[in-house]
Amino acid sequence: MRARDIAEPFPTVTLDTDALSAVRLLAGQRLPGLIILGPTGRPAAVLPGSQVLHFVVPPYVQDEPALARAYDEKASDEMCRRLDEATVRNIVPKDRDADELPVVDADATTIEVAAVMARAHSPVVAVIDDDHFVGAITVSALLSHMIPA
Amino acid sequence: MRARDIAEPFPTVTLDTDALSAVRLLAGQRLPGLIILGPTGRPAAVLPGSQVLHFVVPPYVQDEPALARAYDEKASDEMCRRLDEATVRNIVPKDRDADELPVVDADATTIEVAAVMARAHSPVVAVIDDDHFVGAITVSALLSHMIPA
Predict the structure, then answer these.
(1) Strand runs (DSSP E) across chain B, as ranges?
(2) pLDDT in tens, A30-47
(3) Contact (Cβ atoms closer than 8 angstroms) between residue B135 and residue B127
């Protein structure tokens, strides 16, 4: 069993997609994360949903979650304003390590996919064939193929 | 809007659940993670699916994913053996920080839930009321409630 046999269709965005549309996609389709394609069609980033939250939660609340109880409405308004003004490029953290990008070749074995996913702490990996995105594998889809029935 | 209004039913396991059953639950219901209840009914751990993979992937493959291509069948057999012999207690990493447990009170605001989830890098938070588990909130469910329609 190879990555190409397990990969499923998965919606993608680009670095220029507006942030609100990307977040709506994540929420509406209940995706575990965002797969962001670069200009050549190769995945430029794969962001877990929790990483997206880092962008939407105002910094003062991230530092001290208990503050959110007092400032909920103000924080929600600020979150919406941040999304309105941003593109996906702004959501991608600048300090991420390209070597840890959860992307596998279509020929990767199931254990190889699992290892890449575990190292990247990612709920989803992008599968590429000849440098083009061909689908994605979630943790649960991978495990369904790996464990005995 | 408070955590209790967004929380949804979510299957749980205990530290004594056998590992294979827990992984089957994760895979079969396509859960983003495992919520593990302690003896008092309070969540003892919340593990993202990718964390579970750390347990199932043999250590020599985690260190060098490229090895998986050569040893796929051997690694799969070893994975199944590890699951057969273990309970959930063995999957929970020993070095996790209890302060970072993604658990929120039923009265938590949406922004507070988002902040806790972002800090813990967790795809799901457990919601408790009076120290008892009452449901869970995934990143996508949370965002559906936070963003303007």
Answers:
(1) 12-14, 33-37, 43-48, 103-105, 124-129, 132-138
(2) 999 999 999 999 999 999
(3) yes
Are A27 and A56 in contact by the 8 Å Cβ rule? The answer is: no
Segment 60-79 of chain B within 8 Å of chain A by CB: 61-62, 65-66, 68-69, 71-72, 75-76, 79
Q: Directed axis angle between helix B72-85 and helix B49-56, to 10°?
A: 110
What pLDDT sits at residue B100? 78
Q: How confident is the model at residue A98 (pLDDT cuts 50, 70, 90)?
A: low
Interatomic CA distance for residues B67 and B97, integer angstroms:
31
Distance from CA of B112 to the nearest CA of A (A): 5
User: Does residue A106 belong to the interface with chain B, where contact is any CB pair within 8 Å?
Assistant: no
Average pLDDT value for residue range B84-94: 89
Q: What is the pTM of this model?
A: 0.91
Give the pLDDT confidence of B4-48 residue by residue, as tens digits: 999 999 999 999 999 999 999 999 999 999 999 999 989 999 999
Adjacent-strand bridge partners of B36: B13, B45
CA distance linking residue A101 with residue A128, whole number of Å = 12
Distance from CA of A79 to the nearest CA of B (A): 9
Whole-angstrom distance, CA of residue A134 vs CA of residue A41: 10
Judged on CB neighbours under 10 Å (0-12, 13-18, 19+), B80 is middle
Residues A75 and A57: their CA atoms lie apart, in Å, by 7
